[in-house]
Amino acid sequence: MSKIQADLLEESVQKILDLSAGKTVSINDKDVKGKKRPFQETIELQVTLKNYDPTKDKRFAGSMQLPHGPVRNMRVCVLATAEHSKEVADLADPRVGSQTVDDLKKLNKNKKLVKKLAKKYHAFLASHSIIKLIPRLLGPGLNRAGKFPAPINPSDSIADKVAETRSTVKFQMKKVVCLNAPVANVTQSSEDIRANIVASVNLLVSMLKKKWQNVKTIYIKSSMGPPFQIYF
Question: Residue 55: what pLDDT?
Fold first, then answer.
């Protein structure tokens, strides 16, 4: 159960939406003029942990499909069979690419090339038959980047899997106690944004050893806007 105050969350989300629409809002008793951007701003969750030592305590990773998506129009790469590669081409989405086994072989497990591929996309999917080949073809690069592909089964639709990926929030504990994750965007309704935030926070808290006792602060902010603290 979330310990975030509903009124504070609603007020903070509304200010983010107003600023993204170019309206003026009051922040710390000062009027701040927003600006409408020529791109879709993402709303990010920023969490700082306490009583948690990433060098000693068990690291964690978890993900879930949010109630309302897509969160953002992320770049997705499909490590694909010939059939799935054709499906990607049929999508005609410039932010969805594909790499066949032959394409991956050309990288020759070169760490720099694999790292470049990992940086190019926000997330990866892979045909089920290719998943087991990834360590041999690419080494540990995608896994280290926290982007190991989710599997695509033969009966799955590429379009549906891409939409699901774009609606997924993921947390991965690394070497720092600050965690960030995109959870919504400014084109969504206030109600949908709040539902995504609460679901994301609950997922993260469920993975913490001492639950809410490990949470120090939580902020939300849009891509170009100021942060708003929703948990103290």
Answer: 83
